[in-house]
Amino acid sequence: MTIASKPRTTHERHSVDPARDTARRPQRLILRRRLLLWSAPAVALLLLLAVKMASVGILGNALPGQYAAHDADAMDATLRQIDIGSVGSGYRELFAAGDRDVLNGDAVAALANFQAAHNKSPSACPPRANLALTAELLSGRELARGNFFKARTLLETVVTVANEDTACFENSQPADADAKTFV
């Protein structure tokens, strides 16, 4: 014999047993806390990466103005700030370091930075042009000292770099007439 039960109302069908609900609630909170704790380092890392990317863009945009103002100290400070947390230098950072070296009068260091920038991005014209101009400047100095072999070696670098992409040099002439005749 079955006893007829009274039909349940909509409220009764969708309500949860309070004893069962309180047992599930702490488990859900524990799970939420665990997920939050495990995802916090990833979120923090992504935030730091976003800040680093934004700062490189902002600081990098300041470098051309600092070069135009011939402010080598400001360029040095900006490059040090860009280096914070860097995994490696890009060609633009090496290019800016070469420009800073030019402002400081250190053509040898500038040549090394422009060469490194050119090696990082061989298709970019600015490092290629500055590499050629700096090598040409140093070769002119070596010519003046009578070091013809070293001057020729430096000029061979210029010729090689210029021949790799002639479009970068369509409107430029050697600054030193002796260097032009020597090549």
Question: Mind explaining what this structure looks like?
Answer:
The model has no long low-confidence stretch (mean pLDDT 81). The protein has 183 residues and is mostly helical. The N and C termini lie far apart (115 Å). It has helices at residues 10-14, 18-68, 72-83, 91-103, 107-120, 125-145, 148-164, 177-182. It is built from eight helices and no strands. The longest helix is centred in the first third of the chain and has 51 residues, at 18-68.
Topology, pairings included?
Blueprint: H1 10-14, H2 18-68, H3 72-83, H4 91-103, H5 107-120, H6 125-145, H7 148-164, H8 177-182
Q: Key features?
A:
183 residues; 8 helices; 76% helix; rod-shaped
How many alpha or pi helices?
Answer: 8
Report the span from N to C terminus. Answer: 115 Å
Look at the structure and give the mean pLDDT: 81
Shape: rod-shaped
User: Would you list the SSEs in sequence order as H and E?
Assistant: HHHHHHHH
